[in-house]
Amino acid sequence: MENNYTEYAIIDAKIAELTAKKEGLRVKILEEMVANGEDKVTTGVGSFSVSKLKKWTYPEKIVELEEKVKAVKAKAQSTGDATFVEQASLRFTSIKL
Question: Average per-residue pLDDT in the chain?
């Protein structure tokens, strides 16, 4: 059984390493494409496109309403008006090397 745990931990570490490397490459590719004024680059392994994502900033009144909703939800949880379903889930915390 120990083998499954060890294998899981090794795979988890590799995924974290690859994800960090991928994110670094994403930043470099995006910077390169923007600097070259390219919206799309097609390669032998696929195409890369620059897309625009909207990042919303809301007025203070909306932010206050969101906080009120959070407070009402918390109260419903504490009074038992809100319900929940528990599901089994695996959580892994790696050792610090």
Answer: 94
Q: Is residue 25 part of a domain?
A: yes
- C-alpha–C-alpha distance, residues 60 and 52, integer Å: 25
Q: Tokens for 97?
A: 């090397």
30 to 5, 34, 42, 43, 55: CA distances (angstroms): 37, 6, 14, 15, 18
Question: Which residue segment(s) compose the domain that 45 sits in?
Answer: 2-79
Q: How many domains does the chain have?
A: 1
Q: What confidence tens digit (pLDDT) does each residue in 56-75 have?
A: 999 999 999 999 999 999 99
CA proximity to 58, closest of 50, 69, 47, 48: 69
